[in-house]
Write a sequence for this structure.
């Protein structure tokens, strides 16, 4: 049995930052993640994708953010059970919870924080009849290593932040980037839309709207796509390329967590955001993209805020009647709370066998 103060389900950015905030309160954390490595989507789906809204970092790669968060919390010696999915949660007579993984590993803690991001996920695929023939042969739904597109002719389809951000990033390394969207308006951040427009004006991004890809050309590998303009003329033409990247988002699933008796709304866990992001089960919290409440924004920085308040509430649960006096890290220091820096110890990790 693995015991800890706060058991965190999910080792993505929000879960990792929760370890740091808990450590400031002298609370120990153990994290469970179905992936074989930490970082969640940042490491599994887009480790090389630039992120622009992390305070203090005008631009940082998702994988680099994961490394920094791990370095920040390492001093508090978190434990990890990686490559195992949290399967069941049972409340004990003493008020603690036992969470068992699909491989039978048991964990016990008085507080459970679900930081599972979007849960398990699959890419949303466009309705193109022959697209499955080209998967891993020029069709990619997720960009893990942008270097494979260096000096290549690529076509991206989509109208959200991922399509815009990757069009901007890949314009620096690909020989040609074409962005296709079925509408003239984009759903992404205004700043990203303006950057793509600037790149179009400079001839660095070919923007085709409103239009959609209807078929893929090639035999053993993508050689081009057929594009249909969404206009009165219904113009159709072939566009040569080396890669076709449809970025239509992910279809998330909560998995076994959905059966834990939590209040669920549209595949997200409802929480009380007026206080501490606690669920309908006292002692169980949900932070980051996995939760929902009025005005919720699915941003990493919002997850960091939620993790901070969750840890404060966890401290009160674990130490009933004990008053915590907030100290700024500039005053208290973080390594041993004496203001001195020490070499961070290695985290304890239970890996796939």
């Amino acid at each position: 049995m693995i015991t800890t103060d706060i058991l965190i389900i999910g080792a993505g950015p929000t879960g990792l930052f929760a370890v740091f905030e808990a450590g400031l309160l002298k609370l120990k954390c153990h994290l469970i993640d179905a992936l074989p490595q930490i970082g969640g989507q940042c490491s599994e789906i887009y480790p090389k994708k630039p992120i622009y809204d992390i305070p203090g970092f005008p631009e940082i790669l998702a994988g680099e953010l994961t490394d920094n968060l791990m370095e920040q919390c390492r001093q508090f010696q978190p434990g990890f059970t990686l490559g195992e999915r949290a399967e069941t949660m049972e409340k004990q007579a003493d008020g603690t919870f036992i969470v068992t993984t699909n491989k039978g590993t048991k964990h016990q803690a008085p507080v459970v924080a679900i930081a599972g991001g979007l849960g398990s996920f699959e890419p949303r695929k466009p309705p193109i009849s022959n697209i499955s023939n080209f998967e891993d042969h020029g069709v990619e739904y997720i960009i893990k290593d942008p270097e494979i597109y260096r000096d290549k002719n690529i076509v991206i389809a989509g109208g959200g932040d991922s399509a815009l951000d990757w069009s901007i990033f890949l314009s620096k390394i690909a020989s040609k980037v074409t962005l296709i969207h079925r509408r003239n308006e984009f759903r992404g951040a205004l700043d990203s839309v303006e950057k793509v427009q600037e790149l179009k004006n400079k001839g660095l991004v070919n923007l085709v709207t409103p239009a959609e890809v209807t078929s893929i050309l090639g035999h053993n590998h993508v050689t081009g796509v057929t594009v249909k303009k969404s206009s009165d003329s219904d113009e159709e033409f072939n566009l040569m390329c080396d890669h076709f990247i449809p970025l239509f988002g992910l279809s998330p699933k909560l998995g076994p967590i959905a059966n834990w008796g939590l209040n669920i709304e549209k595949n997200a866990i409802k929480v009380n955001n007026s206080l501490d992001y606690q669920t309908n089960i006292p002692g169980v919290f949900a932070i980051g993209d996995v939760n929902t409440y009025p005005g919720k924004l699915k941003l990493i920085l919002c997850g960091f805020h939620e993790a901070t308040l969750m840890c404060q509430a966890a401290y009160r649960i674990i130490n009933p009647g004990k008053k915590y006096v907030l100290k700024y890290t500039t005053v208290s220091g973080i390594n041993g709370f004496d203001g001195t820096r020490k070499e961070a110890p290695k985290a304890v990790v239970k890996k796939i066998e």
Remarks:
- Confidence is low (pLDDT under 50) at residues 336-342.
- The chain is about 20% helix and 25% strand.
